[in-house]
Amino acid sequence: MLLDVEKLFPAESMTIMIVDYTKDNIDILKKFLTKFGFKITVALSGELALDLIPKLKPDLILLDVMMPGIDGYEVCIRLKKDKDLKNIPVIFITAKGDTEDILEGFGVGAVDYIMKPFRLEEVYVRVKTHLILSAALKKLTLDSETDPLTGLFNRRTFMQKIENEALRFKRTQKPFSILFGDIDLFKKINDTYGHLAGDAILVSISHILNTEKREIDQVARWGGEEFLILLPETNLKGAVQLGNKIRKSISAKPITHEGQEINVTMSFGVSEYNSETHIEKIIDLADQRLYLAKNSGRNKVVSEDA
User: Fold this and answer.
1) Cα–Cα nearest to 268, from 286, 255, 284, 251
2) Considering 6, 12, 165, 225, which one is annotated as catalytic?
3) Does the predicted TM-score (pTM) go above 0.85?
4) pLDDT of residue 3
5) Is 74 a catalytic residue?
6) Residue 131 and which of 14, 103, 188, 267 are 20 to 30 A apart at CA?
7) Which domains, from first to last, does the chain contain?
């Protein structure tokens, strides 16, 4: 398990932030940890750390307890209140060895502590251990949220995303739409070329969907050969335009599997959310329009009812 995690999250892909107002401490830790391939970022104060962490999202934070202004305890408390940052492991740097101080650090959310003056081999072991544990947690989270074949979000995760978007709509009144896509004649492809070819096509289509979507869009494998795309801040007209862009990209060239070229097309149904519509309703509506697209020639985008 740990070996698998280390392959998925190698040291050279890991970023460690050192937060300390003493430059000598930073220099010692940075020089030592860089030898193992870690990327190092630094902050000389708690205020600067709180500004940089949401932007850089380091994999682990080495955080000095005693700093002028916002101290390490307060920085940790604020991080643990942020849903996007709370899982970043924090290791406190402290010259204090009292049990009460150590317990206070654990109480505000730190996972470990290292003492000054540094014992560098111990620093490495503690850092590596918590990076591996954090990476294992990320992998478990990823596995629970994604489809194992395509790597796209699974149905459960997509429903959470669309529910969040509906809540945002209530606050901002900014429209959002969904594309419900289905690979045309997929059963025939499986019957003709085999299920391994079918899997390869699902993976290739997933890659195209991820490539053609905007950064704010969310893509999920709904089941079988069906896919859903959540389009924030997008009305029906904009969703149709994106659907046609994706559709044309898919049909532009065949997908190659084991030397065989397989022509693939995809049909889409589109719907837009409004305040009088339940989430399930707009998915059903997009599904109905997908059905119309499939039954009126395929390889098209339908946004209106028959």
Assistant:
1) 286
2) 225
3) no
4) 46
5) no
6) 103
7) 2-143 (3.40.50.2300), 155-302 (3.30.70.270)
